[in-house]
Amino acid sequence: MSIEKFGVIGAGQMGNGIAQVAAASGMEVLMSDIKEEFCEKGIGNISRNLDRMVKKEKISEGDKTAILGRIRTTTSLEDMKGVDFVVEAAVEREDLKFKIFEDLDRICPPGVILSTNTSSIPIGRIAAQTSRSDKVIGMHFMNPVPVMKLVEVIKGIATSEETFQLTWDLCEKFGKTPAEANDYPGFIANRILMPMINEAVFCLYQSVGKAEDIDTVMKLGMNHPMGPLALADLIGLDTCLAIMETLYDGFKDSKYRPCPLLRKYVEAGWLGRKSGRGFYQYT
Ligand code: CAA
After folding, report:
1. N or C: which end of the chain has fewer CB within 10 A?
2. Pair (172, 109) in one structural domain
């Protein structure tokens, strides 16, 4: 099966990054969101990223125009009926994803693979909302999508070998390196990353260190490209909290309890870079 038309649900930070890499690989991309302004914001972000690449002479002005020309947007999920492969990158909320998959199952022809960029919701649970659980798979990109090489490819219990292989090949076509994971809460990436971030928040909560010092220890002591608190701000504190809740609920193990300070920040609307304030302030 050849994949030429690629559908992306969600034009937010993950969705627009995925749309960019798919279009850069030569595919026709349809990116959807619930409001026109979200689509415009997504396209604006892609355009800025491409400008940066033009300035660094990684691509030409002509390449930029061609990539943008391959991305269309829509506010109607029904338009996904014409695509060959879908990746869903909507907000990390189970009820929302369930509804999207139920709708996509009705809208898309039966052979189309429905993948999800979920960072922690079980693939099997999402697949159960459809009548094609063999064609549902996790395709977990990392933030910032155009820069990060990894895509975690997650097999649900019913995912077929053919679906897995097609998804794997697609990651390579996008210039990414896939890694295979099975369907347990948090998969591999967030099972390891989020408890580290959560522990860094506990260090702040218990005044073991200031935010800057916690990040300096991990940056200079462990050679991480950025400290865990700065990374949490990049990912979004609401997303970090949602993933910790999924780990805690999924394993029923107290070692995954979210730090109360993380919850307090999210309740205050301090969500990290996207809201202008998290563990650090952004202008
Ligand atoms: N979008 C596109 N490109 C970006 C970017 C963005 N948001 N941010 C940085 N870049 C590009 C820059 O243009 C630059 O490109 P060149 O190498 O071509 O010059 C390159 O990335 C490096 O950027 P900078 O020199 O400005 O900054 P840096 O060296 O500090 O790198 C970083 C920035 C790539 C974000 C780096 O700090 C990093 O790798 N941080 C860790 C990121 C990480 O761990 N991501 C995974 C998060 S977990 C996740 O996403 C999964 C989940 O489910 C929560």
Report:
1. C
2. yes
Rounded-to-integer distance, Cα 245 and Cα 257, Å: 7
Domain annotation covers residue 34: yes
- Residue 12 in this model has a pLDDT that exceeds 90: yes
Residue 94 located in a structural domain: yes
pLDDT tens digits, residue range 42-73? 999 999 999 999 999 999 999 999 999 999 99
pLDDT at res. 120: 85
Query: Does the reported pTM lie above 0.85?
Result: yes
CATH of the domain at 112: 3.40.50.720
Residue to probe by mutation, ligand 1, list 14, 54, 147, most atoms within 8 Å of CB: 147
Residue nearest to atom 11 of ligand 1 (CA): 147
Ligand 1 centre to CA of 34 (Å) is: 27
If you average pLDDT over residues 238-247, what whole number do you get?
94
* pLDDT tens digit sequence for 104-134: 999 999 999 999 999 989 999 999 999 999 9
DSSP per residue, the chain? ----EEEEE--SHHHHHHHHHHHHTT-EEEEE-SSHHHHHHHHHHHHHHHHHHHHTTSS-HHHHHHHHHTEEEES-GGGGGG-SEEEE---S-HHHHHHHHHHHHHHS-TT-EEEE--SSS-HHHHHTTSS-GGGEEEEEE-SSTTT--EEEEEE-TT--HHHHHHHHHHHHHTT-EEEEEESSTTTTHHHHHHHHHHHHHHHHHTTSS-HHHHHHHHHHHH--SS-HHHHHHHH-HHHHHHHHHHHHHHH--GGGPPPHHHHHHHHTT--BGGGTBSSSB--
